[in-house]
Write a structure and sequence with these properties.
mainly alpha, two-stranded antiparallel ribbon, elongated
Length: 141
């Protein structure tokens, strides 16, 4: 599994000790894992990249539909991720523009500023920005 995922064997053992994955036995001195562990590791990696701790991931992995408190926490996290995605999309779009812009300095380019302040249109589309409304929003970030 370590070779398949590029993870260190020690990381797999650590995840196993934390209850995030289970081995299906041994093959000589090596632990063996069922194919579904690869999906589990993908989920763990994605969740970590999204800012979840291993403790939060462990709780999510054993949650049931009746865990209403966890569901509330997941909804809050989903909203936070939406905000992160919008912010990162604005930054990506601004950087793409800056990579071909001839304005000096680049950060003073009206198009760059428009894209970075485009709070409502984080889809990458060109959107007119009302600077009066985005100044307050920018302070909130």
């Amino acid at each position: 599994m370590a070779a398949q995922t590029g993870m260190a064997a020690s990381a797999l053992r650590y995840y196993e000790r934390r209850g995030l994955i289970e081995s299906s036995g041994r093959n000589g001195l090596r632990r063996a894992y069922s194919p579904d562990v690869l999906d589990r590791l993908t989920l763990i990696g994605c969740a970590q990249a999204a800012g979840f701790t291993l403790t939060q991931i462990a709780r999510f992995l054993v949650s049931t539909p009746s865990d209403t408190e966890l569901r509330k926490q997941l909804a809050v996290k989903a909203t936070a991720l939406d905000e992160d995605i919008a912010r990162l999309t604005r930054m990506r779009d601004s950087l793409r523009h800056a990579s071909t812009c001839r304005h000096t300095p680049l950060v003073e380019c009206p198009e760059f500023k428009s894209r970075i302040n485009d709070v409502g249109g984080a889809t990458g589309a060109d959107v007119d920005v009302d600077v009066a409304n985005t100044d307050a929003d920018a302070d909130a970030d």
